[in-house]
Design a protein that fits this description.
The chain has 15 helices and 20 strands.
Length: 466
């Protein structure tokens, strides 16, 4: 006789999902009062547990408390506050014209929640990129299951502990674990799946979602370029590039992945970047309390293999025990080298020389569409050339990565860098169905003009109306 298999955490996932779905079916998540209560709960979690969240982020990624607040906690708090202020306006039905043929009648669109959604978070911003989508999910009136990344275990455990204390624990639940738990969750039927991470896992999620024709939002990444033509204040350009690239040790999906610099600007830019690294992180950046570490040894080894991909302008050193790689700038980089073949996602910044903006645009357009594209130029005509001649999730002139903090600006990719956008009102819309509604009184029955049999006069009238 076969011994019964012991129960595992995986066995409880179908029950948990069913219970969460029942919370939505019961109607408890739809009232504005419930939605606002969840938004207040997310805001309170950030405010009251700021210290604990910062400690968890330091344990997982070596983030300083200031960086944790600047790049994670403050963004979530602002999203929750904005949604509280604007939710009623965002949900207001929008009237549309009905045309002369249907008069008298009225028509409008209204947003309704999709149902029960799955949010799968990444490890690089394990608070922001879990809770910011959750703001949109609950603001739209959905029940949600949240799956934090197992590669940020301290943050995952803390979110699993805290979320039930601040949100409706029957309608917003947390599942911890790795690939097995993710696969078990993907086997369930969802009304929407929201995933932030890499393209390899995104393809797995897309295939699983296709089984149930489940809509998905994919927030991915790719190689986000920056163009520098040497005009303007290069010292400021360098500081902004260094901050954007080396925040979170380069483990940011919208960080500048590489720089396309005009040949005349390259020497000056290299000197300015080297000075900016020292200015921001000190003479030994790997000892800086404001410089994060690499998430694990696998990613560390992948990144150190890129260090020989060009002439070392700055940095180039690493410490496997501390999982730290110094902020590194590589010059004379061959576009065919391995460092240019995949998203770097670490503190290594290659510089590729180009002749001008036209060559830079051609270089970018020959590759998959990036999540973000940055230009640093004093010439408005150059900015317009990039606006008209390239396609990217976002296009930013004069700074980098901080566009993600603009809650009113939709954030998302295009093509290989993702599908769908969120933040602010876009977050509510991505987790909602825009339902069309129309109404017409029974009297007078003006539709009689459309009923057969059709006389010549009726045909003429219909042609005029339609």
């Amino acid at each position: 006789m076969t011994e019964p298999r012991p129960a595992t955490a995986l066995d409880h996932i179908p029950t948990l999902v069913a219970q969460t779905r029942q919370s939505f079916v019961s109607g408890r998540t739809k009232p504005i009062s419930w939605r606002l209560a969840q938004l207040r709960g997310i805001e309170a979690l950030i405010v009251e547990r700021r210290r604990e969240l910062s400690v968890a982020l330091a344990a997982d990624l070596g983030k300083s408390e200031t960086e944790a607040y600047l790049t994670e906690l403050s963004i979530v708090r602002h999203e929750a506050q904005l949604a509280q202020r604007q939710l009623r306006r965002w949900l207001r039905p929008k009237p549309v014209g009905v045309g002369l043929a249907l008069t008298p009648a009225r028509a409008w669109t209204m947003l309704e929640p999709l149902g029960t959604v799955l949010i799968i978070g990444p490890w690089n911003y394990p608070v922001q990129l879990v809770l910011a989508p959750l703001v949109g999910a609950v603001a739209a009136g959905n029940a949600a299951v949240v799956k934090p990344s197992e590669l940020a275990p301290a943050t995952s455990a803390l979110l699993a502990k805290l979320l039930p204390n601040y949100l409706d624990a029957d309608a917003v639940t947390v599942v911890e674990g790795g690939a097995d738990e993710t696969q078990a969750l993907l086997a369930e039927r969802w009304d929407h799946i929201f995933y932030t991470g890499g393209s390899r896992v995104a393809r797995i999620i897309a295939r699983s979602a296709a089984e149930h024709l489940t809509p998905i939002t994919l927030e991915l990444g790719g190689k986000s370029p920056a163009f520098v033509d040497g005009s303007g204040d290069l010292d400021t350009v360098a500081r902004r590039l260094v901050w954007a690239k080396f925040t979170n040790a380069g483990q940011t999906c919208i960080a500048p992945d590489y720089v396309l610099a005009t040949k005349d600007a390259v020497p000056r830019l290299e000197r300015a970047l080297t000075a900016a690294i020292t200015e921001l992180y000190g003479p030994d950046p790997m000892r800086s309390p404001d410089f994060a570490r690499i998430v694990n040894r696998r990613h560390f080894d992948r990144l150190t293999a890129f260090l020989g991909g060009g002439r070392t302008v700055a940095g180039g050193t690493s410490d496997p025990d501390a999982l730290r790689i110094a902020p590194t700038v590589l010059g004379d980089v061959n576009p065919a080298s391995p460092v240019m073949a995949e998203e770097i996602f670490g503190p290594i910044l290659p510089i590729v020389p180009v002749a001008d903006a036209r060559e830079a645009i051609a270089f970018i357009n020959a590759r998959p569409k990036p999540l973000a594209l940055y230009t640093f130029t004093a010439h408005r005509r150059v900015e317009r050339a990039f606006e008209r001649g390239t396609s990217s999730g976002s296009l930013v002139h004069g700074f980098a990565i901080a566009q993600a903090s603009i809650a009113e600006l939709p954030f998302g990719g295009v093509g290989e860098s993702g599908m769908g956008a969120y933040h602010g009102e876009a977050s509510v819309r991505v987790f909602s169905h825009e339902k069309s509604v129309a109404t017409k009184p029974l009297r007078p029955d003006t539709l009689k003009v459309a009923y057969p049999p059709y006389s010549r006069a009726q045909q003429k009238l219909l042609r005029g109306l339609l």
